[in-house]
Amino acid sequence: DTAVSQTPKYLVTQMGNDKSIKCEQNLGHDTMYWYKQDSKKFLKIMFSYNNKELIINETVPNRFSPKSPDKAHLNLHINSLELGDSAVYFCASSQGTGGLQPQHFGDGTRLSIL
Amino acid sequence: SQQGEEDPQALSIQEGENATMNCSYKTSINNLQWYRQNSGRGLVHLILIRSNEREKHSGRLRVTLDTSKKSSSLLITASRAADTASYFCATLSNYQLIWGAGTKLIIKP
User: Fold this and answer.
1) Which of B42, B86, B102 shows the shortest C-beta gap to A108?
2) Local confidence pLDDT in tens for the 109 residues of chain B
3) Nearest to A56 among B40, B92, B96 (CB)
């Protein structure tokens, strides 16, 4: 049973398009995250939601909009995709906020912008 | 900005040898966590050490934390081919995890 699952695994699209990535966790965690990992493997937090409420919103272009319909789901919508958006996007979850508990990651969505 | 910095960036050793990776950070922390990332996969939590702890063990893993030097080390004993992966440290500061760029570990058979 996959604990944190995100779809799609690969996303190849043209510049200017709008796309969404979905994430679901079945661990009963109350906090979910979106991370971006660049080509040099740096992992950077983008957003964090606790019980459907946004608690971390790092400096991310407003073309990126997260949405949490319930505490088991956190989706990421990206408008007007740019070449610099090419990266691997990871969803993660944890029990509680603040990094006091380990985070559980999905296997990532590899986004390539043509 | 990236706070944790792993050292070395890459490490290649023979199977059966021990592997040591280091992590340095800049600000005061609540805890420090180590994660492993296999190629093409998500990160997997390995071990969490709190700021008031100095050493922690989990199976073949040993983590030390020196808050006076703002550094941590991860030791993997008796390495196996399956340990080939990237290893990341993450420090908790201001209720947020800050990640380093990782150490790429290659275990040669």
Assistant:
1) B42
2) 335 678 888 999 999 999 999 999 988 888 899 999 999 999 999 999 999 999 999 999 999 999 999 999 999 999 999 999 999 999 887 777 888 889 999 999 9
3) B96
